[in-house]
Amino acid sequence: MNEIIRKTNQILDKTGIYIIEHLISTDIDIHWHEFYEIEYILEGNGTAYINDKAYELKPNTLLFLSPVDFEKIEVTKPLTIIDLAFSGEIISEKMISLLPYGCALTNYPNTVFKTLKEEAKINDKWFFSKYKYLVNCVLIDVIRNFGGSADTIENSPIIKALHYMDLNFKNQITLEQISRYVGLTPTYFSFIFAQKMNTNFKAYLTSLRLDYAAKLLVISDFNATEICYASGFNDFSSFARAFKNYFSLSPSEYRKKNKNND
After folding, report:
1. This prediction's pTM
2. HEC letters along 26-58
């Protein structure tokens, strides 16, 4: 049976960070992360597929992945990679709101990664502060190339809620939980959410899960039951019914139609 490879927060240390240099000599199946990740290519060649978009891997290529991105790697020549993983707690909410989905930068200077390797060897009481600073420097470059504008993103409870939902829809989040997160009562949050979004909280959350499931149906070979649970649904019958109502096709019909169009 196919399995969705899931990298969990358990690989992060108690500070919410992780750094390793490693060699990838064989292809890596499609997977997703519960954390943010930056991968920097030191040597080798290959292709990374992020959300089914292909990126050439060669020295000085930087990949950025958010917790909702899928990645698959095909190796042409063994890849030496510096892998940085971190939780959202080490970056500001404002920065999180500006970050793009998975993307790649080419010809990215290796200065930051050389410094991080040196700091990891020292690993003293200042390491976490230095790691956090350097990661934020890299993220600023990602935002400059692919992210939103700090001048155009509204600092409101709804924007905060939307970003939270984007990152957590695969989990079992509730109206009460997200209302508490944005500092509003459930009743008032429901009212302003419906007013701003022209839909209610539950319908919007379901649409995120269904769009994610549809993407998996096209880019992977996982069966519909696996995709159902990976997308945040609790049971297959509810998923299948919601999918048919949303797309006017069953999951199997949707896969057949869209894979044939690739």
Report:
1. 0.70
2. CCEEEEEECCEEEEEEEEEEEEEEECCEEEEEC
